[in-house]
Design a protein that fits this description.
alpha/beta; Rossmann fold; 2 domains; eight-stranded mixed β-sheet; six-stranded parallel β-sheet; 16 helices; binds uridine-5'-diphosphate
Amino acid sequence: VNSNNANSVSTVVAPFNQPYVSSRKTVPTRQAIALISEHGDPAAEIGKDAAGGQNVYVRQVGEALAKLGWQVDMFTRKTKPDDAAIVQHAPHCRTIRLVAGPEQFIPRDELFPYMQEFVAAFQAFQSKEGSNYPLVHTNYWMSAWVGLQLKQQSNIQLIHTYHSLGAVKYQAVPHRPVIAATRLAIERQILEQADCIVATSPQEQETLRTLVSKEGHIEVIPCGTDISNFHTIPKAEARAALGFDVNDAIVLYVGRFDPRKGIETLVRAFAQLKVETGRRESNGKAAFDPAKLRLVIVGGSHPDSTDGLERARIERLIHAAGLAEQTVFAGQIGHASLPLYYTAADVCAIPSHYEPFGLVAIEAMACGTPVVASDVGGLSFTVVPDETGLLVPPQDPSALAQAIERVLTDELWARKLRRQAPIRVQQNFSWSGVAVHLSDLYRRLLAQSISNTLFFDTSVAPLSEKQDLSPLHKDV
Ligand code: UDP
């Protein structure tokens, strides 16, 4: 709706016999919207302090939506006293860190009691800025609860992305944490009461329908990747930059240290691969020297947190399997340097037990690296077997080892995968493409909200700046 439409709609509701006077005092610049990500700080360093896909998603979506003309405010919880309260990412995109609970890292399972404070801080921020967000897009179940409270208090359009699903997570854990029942209830409530759920893959949509509720509106809009950053580089160049040999057979893992990520399965697969290649070598049939096998593990960890414990456990496994000399722990690597790791690798392994989407798969593919992934969740959607990589059953070291071996040994076929993988990403998973879909969804929901208001309440005031649907100005 442009301002002409807005005026014509408003005239309909202006009181009889009185000239219509717009309540708008100034010409609006942009429609402001709020993205809420209570624990995934969009301004955080990725790959550290449990920062992963959710942080990347919110930040990239936020920046891309701002380019499409929205004013994007991304809200998260402040976890360090020295962190800035507001981080401006681009002229119309910022992260706002709200104080809710102590300004320190709090594990996710202990965070919910501070969400009431988060709601109050959000509302205080709105009052201070004199703005109201007609549309709120929440991420993860605790933000969903925040969104549901806001929706009870004012007429907002509420959109939600899960990122992780309690119903799946708790299937695999022997002891459910105390918070589990609350989480499951809120995950159901948000599906049934939000204006729209954004599932990032058809598989996630199916899981929601099977495990959470048959009610509620879901649209599938995938995650994306920054294809201007993640693209192909000559392999030899990347290896030279990172100090790897041209003859190395490199298997890469990128991600957080979390048992759900299945790094243990990869270590066991790698051990099998080494033994198998050694056996072939003694028969004179090895495609490469087993001593040249390298397992490169990229991801940050903190000795005192859960990711530090998982890294220590993985290191113990590696030592026990006699793989220490062939394994490189690269630590946390930023997105600027990650393309070097992806392109240097022969294969990127994603051995997750479950993955709602799995950004690493599309990042690797965008760099032309074949992906061998567990056939679960979003990975079954992004990785096309025989075209961009292979899918294997989760938690199956032998299947993973065989798939990795095929990529390492079938040179002609692997070359075909390398060519096709970036094309799939460019065509389906760019952030700018994702943001266009989200922007279209937001517009439809805001338009629907206004038409509902007009239909049900004819005494409604003329359209205010708050209700203007269009983001108005596009960045060039
Ligand atoms: N990542 C990174 N540096 C690291 C490790 C991971 O930038 O050292 C990024 C990775 O590139 C990806 C994100 O963290 O963008 C992980 O997202 P994914 O969806 O694969 O997993 P999640 O963390 O959401 O479980």
